[in-house]
Write a structure and sequence with these properties.
six-stranded parallel sheet, alpha/beta
């Protein structure tokens, strides 16, 4: 089955490019359109109603660009809005959820940490997932302040180091052996996090699993592209320079009011 329409991807900012990169690596022939709603970041501090409204706005923009599938590359938007999106729009959606299952399954200390936004940790979907692992102690930590620093290009700043030390030290003291990154922005912090965590603690994010699920849905339901060398499109509504830098200045970033 051939379908040369683009894949749409949206996030509350630049963080979902960590998901885009995994999809682009696995599916290099697919055209991708990425929306960075940085003007409204972070979603994690917003109400469920606001998150659903923003997710609908992003979806409608991508549908207007004729996208065949939409990846919600934001944990907060997935856990709060994806069911409403699936009910409202006639297009397949791929969500992103914290990778609790592999961490809980492989943990030898039966203690794992999760660093995520308030919106994700407080969501009904997240808490339903946590309930499945009642034999594992899960240390939850809201990453207040991390997304704004990433969105402003301050990944390696002293403020970032201080926040990460404050958030991770109690997890280390609690004897975690896995740290789950529950926000698509956070993979960009892995080099910083590794400086703080002991080497035996493994870090897990959802990017590779999301890319594989995207591939499966394209194969089974939507159709794969048969065109080559298709340039991705990137749109942002705030500070295109930051998005461009996180992409290694390899691609044009278009500033758009949305």
């Amino acid at each position: 089955m051939i379908n040369n329409k683009p894949i749409g991807i949206f996030d509350s900012g630049i963080g979902g490019t960590s998901i885009w990169a995994e999809i682009h690596q696995l599916l290099p022939d697919e055209k991708t359109i990425y929306l960075a709603d940085s003007k409204n970041a972070p979603y994690g501090q917003k109400s469920k109603t606001e998150i659903i409204a923003l997710s609908c706005k992003n979806t409608e923009l991508l549908l207007a660009m004729d996208c065949k599938l939409i990846v919600v590359a934001c944990n907060t938007a997935t856990t709060n809005a994806i069911q409403e999106l699936r009910n409202k729009y006639n297009v397949p959606f791929i969500g992103i959820e914290p990778a609790i299952k592999p961490a809980a399954t492989h943990s030898k200390t039966q203690t794992i940490g999760i660093l995520a936004t308030r919106g994700t940790l407080n969501s009904e979907l997240f808490n339903k997932n946590v309930e499945k692992f009642h034999n594992t102690k899960i240390i939850e930590q809201i990453g207040n302040g991390l997304v704004p620093l990433i969105e402003n290009g301050k990944i390696n700043s002293p403020q970032m180091t201080t926040l990460l030390e404050d958030y991770l030290t109690p997890m280390i003291d609690a004897n975690i052996d896995y740290l789950v990154l529950g926000c698509s922005h956070y993979p960009y912090l892995i080099p910083q996090i590794k400086k703080i965590l002991p080497p035996h603690i493994q870090i897990i994010d959802s990017g590779e699993a999301v890319a594989r699920q995207t591939q499966n849905v394209l194969k089974e339901k939507v159709g794969l592209s048969n065109l080559k060398n298709r340039e991705p499109l990137f749109y942002t509504n705030y500070e295109p320079k930051v998005l461009s830098e996180i992409l290694g200045n390899q691609y044009e970033v278009i500033e758009k009011n949305f």
